[in-house]
Amino acid sequence: MIEIRGxxxxxxxxxxxxxxxxxxxxxxxxxxxxxxVLGPSGCGKTTLLKCIAGLIPWNEGDIVIDGTPVRGPxxxxxxxFQNFALLPWATVLDNVGFGLRLRGVGRxxxxxxxxxxxxxxxxxxxxxxxxHELSGGMQQRVGIARALAVQPSVLLMDEPFGAVDEQTxxxxxxxxxxxxxxxxxxVVFITHxxxxxxxxxxxVVLMSARPGRIAEIVPVPLQRPRSNDVGALERSGAxxxxxxxxxxRLREMHEEHRPSEVAG
Amino acid sequence: xxxxxxxxxxxxxxxxxxxPRTGKQPGALGRLLGSSLPYQLVTFVAFAAAWExxxxxxxxxxxxxxxxxxxxxxxxxxxxxxxxxxxxxxxALALGFAIAVLIGVPAGIVLGRxxxxxxxxxxxxxxxxxxxxxxxxxxxxxxxxxxxxxxxVLVAIFSIxxxxxxxRAGVRQVDPSLxxxxxxxxxxxxxxxxxxxxxxxxxxxxTGIRLGVGRAVTGMVIVExxxxxxxxxxxxLEYRGLFKAASLYGTIVIILAEALLLISAAxxxxxxxxxxxxxxxxxxxx
Lengths: 264, 286
Ligand SMILES: Nc1ncnc2c1ncn2[C@@H]1O[C@H](COP(=O)(O)OP(=O)(O)OP(=O)(O)O)[C@@H](O)[C@H]1O
Ligand SMILES: [Mg+2]
Description:
A: alpha/beta, 9 helices, globular, B: mainly alpha, about 80% helix, flat
């Protein structure tokens, strides 16, 4: 369970001015929940995720995970990056085992665990390949396997499928769903896509910009498991309705900011 | 640095995975023509012939013909005198270059990671880059004497710039998101250095070492010519004094050969150690 209370974060820009990236964010993420976060560009989604990851300090408020306040990165959390962030010099096997290696897990155990996760993400046979020999979708599979290899209880994903093509993205979404259905872990998943937010999430957190805050939390009452029939799900009334609603809200947010953009 | 990068990209180009691929594998002859060796041979033969003709028609005491030079080179290679000189010269080369690498690589890495150090170091790096090194030789002799120490220091000064500048660039090229990724998995500062920064900077460090070797050989010869007239430089001066033009040319040929050999070795090591970077930067270049 992740409890975020009154979280505030400001950046000091190069010109010396401050940008308020997050303002008074309150959020509870339930154990084993799949939470998706949606919002316009620059509303502080990445900042929120990095705070939960313990990668950046914040100015106000608290983040508590299972009763322990977050003070920095921890073994209970791992992250999947939009740009994959794979080590270009390391093989798939070594990339997947990287987190374990940093934690001092011995070679034999490390490789065994890495292999089993390579199998989970469907990359068996590619163990000795290097990232540049893989397609974008395959690279992100490596990123997901690496994050799962350390057996986190919370998986933090920052637009993980933003850099892959539409078809690959759909396959990855289905696979992520089925991995999550089997492994049961808490996921915080950031996305730009309303469809993706609804398809994957138990709840969609809608954020608004300037300053970044939570505008609304929309529950997604679609049945689980979803991985086996994504197509039917996408044609269902509830799915269409929620996606349309999310788009209405997002458009309102964009319009709020439009006058100043025209004037400027 | 840009040269080095262009050079690396060029070597990589034929292996690129993107362009259209011809169906048929080139045969042995095709491969030979594809490599630069035949062209190098052709230019070399033309050069040797022109040299031979020029030396026999216009040459005098001071310009040996190509065949005379070859003879003298072989003669030198079997003489004890040359190998004694080689030994002494290379002592300075090996020690000086080792110092340049041992100091230059860590210095470059630290400069790359902590940018504020730049303000202190830039002046000195620029001085090292632009100062005519010959000018500091008298200074070295005054403080260190005519012995090995002066030669070692000069070789080190000559080559260290390339090592520092390239190592620094290498660390800067490392994608900051990799550091963030490592931190998210709980990497300590030490692990970030050993597992991310060093391996990521390796290709550039190796390039710096390769370029540094060339500069080190230059430094070795210059210091011997200008300062201590020892070893190989001493031989050159001696043959000049005796008007033994063929031997003079032969010595130079041998020095060139050594430099080429060292650079090839460095290039080989570079490729062995950092094969991953080849396709990688070809990709970022397009
Ligand atoms: N290191 C930083 N220094 C200064 N300002 C920053 C920094 N990181 C983020 N910001 C600012 O904070 C705000 C939120 O940024 P953030 O990256 O969290 O947005 P985001 O919602 O992830 O955007 P996107 O959807 O484009 O990824 C933006 O206005 C951004 O300019
Ligand atoms: Mg972002």
